[in-house]
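haha ok so turns out i had the wrong file open the whole time. this is the CORRECT one, sorry everyone. sequence first:
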Amino acid sequence: MSSDISAGPATHGPNRRNFLMLSGAVAAATAIGQAAPAAAAPGGSIGDLGGHPFSLGVASGDPLPDSVILWTRLAPRPLEIGSGMPDKPVPVHWQVAHDEAFSRIVREGETFALPEHNHSVHVDVRGLPTDRWFYYRFRCGSELSPVGRTRTLPAPAAPVDSFTISHVSCQNWVTGYFTAYRYMAEDGLDLAFHLGDYIYEGAITAAAPRGGAFVPDDIRAACQTVDQYRLRYSLYKTDPDLQAAHAAFPWAVTRDDHEVVNDYLGGVDHGQKQLARRAAGYKAWWENMPTRCDPPVGPDQRIHRRFAVGNLAQFDLLDSRQYRIADNDPAVSKLGDAQEAWLIDGINSHGTTWHVLAQGQQLGGVTANSPTRNRIYRAYYDREVSPIILSGDLHWTLVQDSLLAVPDATSPIVGTEFIVTSITSTGDGPGSQTTKDNWLKNPWVKYADGYRGYIRTVITPTGVSSTQRDVKFVTRPDAPVWDAQKFYIEAGKPGVQLV
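then structure:
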């Protein structure tokens, strides 16, 4: 392993577009119902299984100042139960380098893809230089994975001039194409937040979804078992645009409901059948995400977590479902008492300029009183912290001032919430004009948009600039993208401005 770990400041390097073209070409070789051709594999390597083992691409996630998680899953036949893999551990070599030619290796090693984890790989690469971009790849036998690109975060309390994120939610494969991810992959991001509904668990009934794509019968049934959830992830992860976005930058991922079942309340014991379904969904989620969260223990898994980007921003990721008992019970937290206490106790724990809360679903309805939200917003307000709140689930973009006491429009503004629209769910925009008008009747709601897309946000010490990026349609491929609206939040001044 090379001992050369010198590098310049983190940057989007000059070869970034070539890297994305290479990653996209490899990903595009994997189509529904077929895998990319395997390279020659003498000596009985993984290539003898009849398919490229890296058909689902590569990903990275949950970066820290000296570490990042690298992910892949071996799947030469991804749309079959077992993915065409033998029932035994398989060695996988990994490399991290300063350059995409891998002439300057920073770290490398070997791990095993285990059958009990569906031959997924989670490598926690430690000892990396802070605030740097890297390239990474895997090798199994004689076969190489696509090349991914990732980064570490700035050191704790280090001055940071700018950090660019996006947040996305709700990607129903049957409903449309993941074209928004193609644009995200080219959008100069430091980190992407996925806020849940990465898959949809329901039965696939369309005879030929997505313009005639073949979906095997094993994948069509509503997900109940771990093998069914695994196959659903495989189906989604064959998408070339999703693979390109995963390969372009690290992700931080949380869940909403469809990773298990629509609108489930995790804090209520619905019996062994429901708990078994939750355990299966959680396990398949962990196997397919580039997360440093520990694997689940049965139906339980802690996924709420916190990190900071130098002195610029603290990020808190919440679990909106696992501990939920009731939405508006004044005595019971929607987040579960322990998670709510963790959130409140950790406000301003890193002393950063900005505080970002990311969650699968908003803490309370746009127009409804919510005791859980009231307590949390009061905690921010009392500490003179103005949060930026990133939410998903709604299939609309709503940008609003976060009031201390919804629906009292005269109550103080605590922060700003960006509820992001879906990647595909609900289909082509623009959504109902009546629905849009009803949202905008509330004076704290500043913007409503029913197209599909994502929100890109640039965080600086003096302000936060966000852009709603919409795709024209999702029911056909290759939709154009445009900047639908820009927003600005001035540091020290709660409330959002339309630009």
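Residues 272-288 form the longest helix (17 residues).
again sry for the mixup
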